[in-house]
Amino acid sequence: MGRKLNGYGTETCVTTTSTLAQSQARTLQRHMIGHGMLILLVGLLAGGGLLVSLTGGLEVWPGRLLAVRVPGDSAAWVRFHIGQLLNAFLIVMVALILPVLGVALTLARRVGWLIVGTGWANTLFYAAALFAPNRALTFGGNRFGAANGASLIGLVPALVFAVVSIVAVLVLAAQSFRRPVWPATQDRGGI
């Protein structure tokens, strides 16, 4: 049984608005997944840096190593490599769960872009930590070493987005216990 349209096409307008919202939601998801894939690529490339840091160079022929020096130690490259993989998975996971949680489109955009920002802030943090004797963990020196410009570059966005990500996760957790608004409650026209 379908709904009857009034003379002004109200049902058509609602369906068009619903379709537009779904299209915008899909666009948000695609953009988030795209950013996640770029961060994943950074993590995979960091795996190459990890290999070079472990071996001291690139093997151009079996048994022939071309010496290459990279900043940071192997442990820092492990953190950079694994951290980016996890950041990418976080962004993609949030992109995929937004419709399941029924997050309203406006809130989905806010949370989505905050999570993307978190991923890039963490990418900058891990990269800067390769050049910071103190691992970009503090503004001043700490037990790992002295602070430098890389410490500041890595730490400021990481601190800001650490708070942002906690808020975003709390919003998503709260949303998971609410009645869905979008798209789970939309009329699918008999589907």
TrEMBL record:
- Enzyme class, top EC level, equals isomerase
Q: What is its EC number?
A: 5.3.99.7
Which InterPro entries does the entry link to? Answer: SOI/HabA-like (IPR058965), StyOxIsoStyC (IPR054803)
Keyword annotations for this protein? Isomerase, Membrane, Transmembrane, Transmembrane helix
Spell out where the chain crosses the membrane.
38-61, 81-104, 111-132, 152-173
Q: Which NCBIfam families match?
A: StyOxIsoStyC
Q: What is this protein called?
A: Styrene-oxide isomerase
- Chain's gene name: styC
